[in-house]
Amino acid sequence: MSNDSVLELRNVSLEFPGRRDFFGTSHSVRAVDQVSLVVKKGDILGLVGESGSGKSTLAKIMLGLLKPDSGEVFLSGLEPHKMTRKQVAEQVSFIFQDPYSSLNPRHTIGYTVSYPLYLKGGGSSNERKERAREMLQVVGLPSRFFDAYPNQMSGGQRQRAAIARALISDPKLLICDEPTSALDVSVQSQVLNLLLKLRKDFELTLILISHNLGVIQHMSTRVAVMYLGKIVESDLSESIFKHPRHPYTQLLLKSTLSVDPGAGIPDLQTDTTAREAMREHPSFLS
Ligand code: ADP
Ligand code: MG
Fold it and tell me: What does DSSP say about strands 222-227 and 230-236: parallel, antiparallel, or unpaired?
């Protein structure tokens, strides 16, 4: 693997065993199918695809939370599922759609944000608290939130706290899985722009997962399009949006733009046009 690649996937696949139906037949789901991908230092990779295409499963494989059935994953040259939790945490952090999943409702924000430093080891309790207070400032949260609980905060504030927690250990790579999908539209762009700013300040490499093409276009330097577990196309962002080569990507762009050219690019989860068109033309993927 080359020196500047932060993450590399080679032919990664993962199948979930299906539940048995009434007749005893089990329908397994190939959630990730032969995915190869290289993410280089400083990239903002936008991973886009409709709901159920395998994006979150792929993210969990990248984080070592799921072990692929076949293929290889390298995080700065090491395989995440063979690394300790601490080793993975030094390389990569994540935030999810629902900040509740990274913020324990029973712990104060100060405790939760400083916890990765405790896990990392070194430094006194006071130093950890001090650094957590600094991180709250970095993500634009007033210091009074240090002693607050997640249920005392808005969705946007909770996502800022989750970002503070993700970055306190100074990871190289941040994986954001639908980071703004649960937020009000007015708050979404604030959180996205915060991520862009922090990416510079922390010299981060970002993987941004979204079903929203507008978010991907606004944020990404590179784009990978996922459909039924496969990456069907990946390229520089401007190439994908100007000259999409794969029929599925073309269909996504066309169907979303044909809804209302003035309204920007809408959401794949609410826009079923592409999905319906794919059902009529299953040969697109062959
Ligand atoms: P996305 O994040 O793109 O919406 P997911 O990775 O969550 O997609 O899901 C991909 C596919 O794998 C879907 O068909 C989903 O139903 C299935 N799947 C995801 N997680 C599990 C699981 N733990 N057990 C069984 N099937 C799963
Ligand atoms: Mg998902």
Answer: antiparallel
